[in-house]
Specification:
It is a single chain. The chain has 332 residues and is α/β, with parallel strands linked by helices. It folds into two domains: 2-105 and 218-329, D-Maltodextrin-Binding Protein, domain 2, CATH 3.40.190; 108-203, D-Maltodextrin-Binding Protein, domain 2 (3-Layer(aba) Sandwich), CATH 3.40.190. The protein is built from 15 helices and eleven strands. A six-stranded mixed beta sheet has the order 2-3-1-4-11-5, sandwiched between helices. A five-stranded mixed beta sheet has the order 8-7-9-6-10, with helices on both faces. Helix 5 (139-150) links the parallel strand 7 (130-132) and strand 8 (159-161). The radius of gyration is 22 Å and the shape is globular. 43% of the residues are buried.
């Protein structure tokens, strides 16, 4: 009995020691189940987010505390969200840095209402258009602004309408209260199915984004507080390596193979419907994880045209390719 107690005590001590040795990284994500965040699920399911005593825990965004505050005060180590937040935050005195760029398209379609199809055929026609987008600093609004500039207009040459529920948006398009809507996957399919709008610009693929914007559009990224990147480069390296591996898997396997990794609690009961949406979203991630400098520069310029406070932002400080480059150079 004494020997048994001694062995049990030793086992508990070893377990406690192992737990203390384990380093946990907290990654905040803007809605874990959203289709745009499926690379996170891929990285988790393939075991890329743990190793060498480090485990990454993904947690959902909280509504009561701003993301920037949680990253700034150390409650979370990194955030999975759109790149433009780094530009916005630097303009407000916070230094954040994207360490991996996952998405290089908006992952959205721009739809034109049936009543306005003849009036708005290309970006050159958009002056005076009423476009349903998001808030002033949202990615949807950035897409609308891109299109106006691409068409040779000023950002003030259109009317931005606040985003609402899908049913209300469909009603506005049907009633002639709005001309176009920025619709991320899978919302675009809903408006088409309702018979109220058709595709004006497909920005889900790299080719479509280059066609309409002239370059790709940095969207989903993993970013950290710059000081944290500098003091704990091993955290940045682990995250960058994990998502480089996830991107590599996504771009070298079929949509069916990717979908097989997604658990039912995320994909839902209708696996066929999820696969259909996933096929539309996968082209957003046709990249190796590096931030294209010219695309970051273009996104900053569009934001600065919209709000002069962004003009002082140093774009080079909003991202780094150092960790992705190291991951790409490592033996597979």
């Amino acid at each position: 009995m004494k020997i048994l107690k001694l062995l049990l005590g030793l086992a508990m001590a070893l377990a406690s020691s192992a737990a203390l040795a384990e380093t946990r990284i907290v990654l905040l994500v803007d809605e874990y189940k959203a289709i745009r965040n499926f690379p996170l699920i891929v990285a988790e399911r393939l075991g890329y987010l743990k190793g060498d005593g480090i485990v990454v825990t993904a947690v959902n965004l909280r509504d009561d505390i701003p993301t920037a505050q949680m990253l700034d005060d150390g409650r979370v180590d990194a955030v999975m969200a759109y790149y433009h937040h780094n530009i916005v935050n630097q303009s407000e005195g916070r230094e954040f840095q994207a360490i991996a760029t996952l998405g290089v398209t908006p992952g959205a379609k721009v739809l034109v209402a049936n009543h306005a199809r003849d009036k708005y055929r290309t970006a050159a026609d958009l002056k005076g258009a009423r476009i349903i987008a998001g808030g002033a600093g949202s990615s949807k609004t950035a897409v609308a602004n891109y299109l106006l500039i691409a068409g040779g207009h000023k950002i003030g040459d259109y009317t931005r309408i606040a985003n609402e529920s899908k049913d209300r948006i469909a009603a506005s398009l049907r009633a002639g209260e709005a001309d176009l809507v920025i619709a991320p996957t899978p919302d675009a399919g809903y408006y088409e199915a309702q018979g109220v709008a058709t595709v004006f610009a497909d920005l889900t693929s790299v080719a479509g984004t280059r066609k309409h914007f002239g370059t790709v559009f940095p969207s989903s990224t993993i970013y950290m507080k710059t000081a944290r990147v500098q003091s704990n480069p091993e955290i940045a390296q682990l995250l960058a390596t994990a998502f480089v591996r996830a991107l590599r898997f996504i771009n070298t396997h079929t949509a069916e193979e990717v979908a097989a990794l997604i658990p039912n609690e995320i994909a839902g009961r209708d696996r066929a419907a999820y696969l259909k949406v996933l096929k539309e979203e996968i082209p957003m991630f046709e990249t190796d994880g590096r931030m294209p400098p010219e695309a970051a520069e273009k996104e900053w310029r569009v934001l600065a045209d919209f709000n002069p406070k962004y003009r002082a932002v140093d774009v080079a400080r909003t991202y780094t390719n150092r960790f992705v480059d190291a991951a790409l150079a490592a033996p597979r």
